[in-house]
From TrEMBL:
PANTHER family: ALDEHYDE DEHYDROGENASE-RELATED. The lineage of its organism: Eukaryota, Metazoa, Chordata, Craniata, Vertebrata. It is found in: Cytoplasm, Cytosol. One of its GO terms (biological process) is aldehyde metabolic process. This is 4-trimethylaminobutyraldehyde dehydrogenase. The active site is at E254. One of its GO terms (cellular component) is cytosol. Its EC number is 1.2.1.19, 1.2.1.3, 1.2.1.46, 1.2.1.47. GO terms for molecular function: 4-trimethylammoniobutyraldehyde dehydrogenase activity; aminobutyraldehyde dehydrogenase (NAD+) activity; formaldehyde dehydrogenase (NAD+) activity. Homotetramer. Transmembrane segments: none annotated. It catalyses: formaldehyde + NAD(+) + H2O = formate + NADH + 2 H(+); acetaldehyde + NAD(+) + H2O = acetate + NADH + 2 H(+); acrolein + NAD(+) + H2O = acrylate + NADH + 2 H(+); spermine monoaldehyde + NAD(+) + H2O = N-(2-carboxyethyl)spermidine + NADH + 2 H(+).
């Protein structure tokens, strides 16, 4: 597959173990190849009837799946992980074509995805309750049980990885899942659905419905849906929480951020610059946990800024399927315009563009209608500027000087978000002191945006609640049943 040649002709819904056209629908959507601006797929948004059919299919599979032992579920997840690993390059290629991220990054995303399945396969066999001795030989025990049919709703920036992060723990715990990807990136999750079936999952265990807000609402409101796990923006997260509250459904919310990255003057400069690049420019800056507020201690401000600008200017932008490309196009034209709008506003508010921030037109004529821009570093930033306060979700780094540890902590925490934070310093005590004060669900010391699946990921404050990855996520996809056993006679109060 090469840029400009891929189109999808198969159905994009998945139900009962196969691709299907939706039974009903409301409106048609087009999915694009951001590198060229070409339409690669046209599909119908699933209506209430199709959502119900997907739920019924998942319910039927759940009846079989919940009876399987953890080890049996583990084997199927391991087989799915093996297939993903084997088909890594093909899946990454589809991801790159539909999302625009470089193939280099997409391959890493797919690696994190199969690792996630392997990790939860490892935990599936060891899920257990506890036994508690009570007086007189009586006893109690707890059983960790699945919730039922879980819904996953995803954002467009990590389509395959988000579906894996949600489905792996859900299935490991014995649930079935219906996944709705973003209408911008409907394609790659179908490969995951087919892989689960190939690995031996019962038909209906992992279904896919396509659509936007209306389809998502049908899912959240369905009476047979037990849980909703959502990744997306804060405004949509609020709606999902509201809808789910009607059915007292537990929700996991992985929302946006405006994370701080704090660079102290005693840092290893080369690593700090690399860290700032990792914190801002992966996936064209369209990353929820990006450290976009880069606080730099004043003594090293000039040296750091000079180096970070030099490295940013070296980023190779272009055809995302080429091995040496490190930045592809943004997701779509309206989003590109929105990001450029933030930069215009930043200039008006007094920020200085130190590099990039304008459109990029690649030399290759087939890329002329793609959504490219040059990654941007903004200097002369102040805490009250829009570019420093709001999530831009594009390749825009704001550099802010600071003097003292106490001051930077106050400023770093002065946000309604709390997804991630980072600190670069050689002083181990300072690193832990600072981390202890940061109001963020994920804190990085001397690195940024790495994501080992063994570690929980999720936010504080308006960045959401619940976690993905790590052992703790088992608790978000299961419930505890307590069984109290009397070994003597009933001592009645009456
Ligand atoms: N914390 C995380 O792990 C994480 C990861 C990736 C992206 N994000 C966040 O996602 C945002 C970007 O993604 P986006 O633009 O796709 O977000 P979005 O909120 O617009 O959409 C996310 C998903 O919700 C669906 N949706 C929209 N309205 C809905 C409704 N009323 N009911 C049910 N579903 C609805 C969309 O179709 C899509 O599938 C950013 O804010 C980013 O920070 C967070
Ligand atoms: C893999 N990363 C870079 C940690 C991103 C996680 C998902 C956020 O958008």
């Amino acid at each position: 597959m090469s840029t400009g040649s891929f189109t999808v002709s198969q159905a994009l819904n998945y139900r009962g173990g196969k691709r299907v056209q939706p039974a009903d629908g409301s409106g048609t959507e087009e999915a694009y190849e951001p590198a060229t601006g070409r339409v690669i797929a046209t599909f119908q948004c699933s209506g209430e009837k199709e959502v119900d059919l997907a739920v019924q299919s998942a319910k039927a599979a759940f009846k079989i799946w919940r009876k399987k032992s953890g080890m049996e579920r583990s084997r199927i997840l391991l087989e799915a992980a093996r297939i993903i690993r084997e088909r890594r390059d093909e899946i990454a290629t589809v991801e790159t074509i539909n999302n625009g991220k470089s193939i280099f990054e997409a391959q890493l995303d797919i690696d994190i995805s199969w690792q996630c399945l392997e990790y939860y396969a490892g935990l599936a066999g060891s899920m257990a309750g506890e036994h508690v001795q009570l007086p007189g030989g009586s006893f109690g025990y707890t059983i960790r049980e699945p919730l039922g049919v879980c819904v996953g709703i995803g954002a467009w920036n990590y389509p395959f990885q988000i579906a894996s992060w949600k489905s792996a723990p859900a299935l490991a715990c014995g649930n079935a899942m219906i996944f709705k990807p973003s209408p911008f990136t409907p394609v790659s999750v179908l490969l995951l659905a087919e892989i689960y079936t190939e690995a031996g999952a019962p038909p209906g265990l992992f279904n896919v419905v396509q659509g936007g807000a209306a389809t998502g609402q049908f899912l959240c409101q369905h009476r047979d849906v037990a849980k909703v796990s959502f990744t997306g923006s804060v405004p949509t997260g609020k709606k999902i929480m509201e809808l789910s509250s009607q059915g007292i459904k537990p929700v996991t919310l992985e929302l946006g951020g405006k994370s701080p990255l704090i660079i102290f003057s005693d840092c290893d400069m080369e690593n700090a610059v690399k860290g700032a690049m990792m914190a801002n420019f992966l996936t064209q800056g369209e990353v929820c946990c990006n450290g976009t507020r880069v606080f730099v201690q004043r003594e090293i401000l000039d040296k750091f800024t000079e180096e970070v600008v030099k490295q940013t200017q070296k980023i190779k932008i272009g055809d995302p399927l080429l091995e040496d490309t490190r930045m592809g196009p943004l997701i779509n034209r309206p989003h590109l315009q929105r990001v450029l709008g933030f930069i215009e506003q930043a200039k008006k508010q007094g920020a200085k563009v130190l590099c990039g921030g304008d459109l990029y037109v690649p030399g290759d004529p087939k890329l002329k209608d793609g959504y490219y821009m040059k990654p941007c570093v903004l200097g002369n930033c102040k805490d009250d500027m829009t570019c420093v306060k709001e999530e831009i979700f594009g390749p825009v780094m704001s550099v802010l000087p600071f003097d003292t540890e106490a001051e930077v902590l106050e400023r770093a925490n002065d946000t309604t978000f709390g997804l991630a934070a980072g600190v670069f310093t050689r002083d181990i005590q300072r690193a832990h002191r600072v981390v202890a004060e940061l109001q963020a669900g994920v804190c990085y010391v001397n690195n940024y945006n790495v994501s080992p699946v063994e570690l929980p990921f999720g936010g504080y404050k308006m960045s959401g609640f619940g976690r993905e990855n790590g052992r703790v996520t088992i608790e978000y996809y299961s419930q505890l049943k307590t069984v109290c056993v009397e070994m003597g006679d009933v001592e009645s109060v009456f």
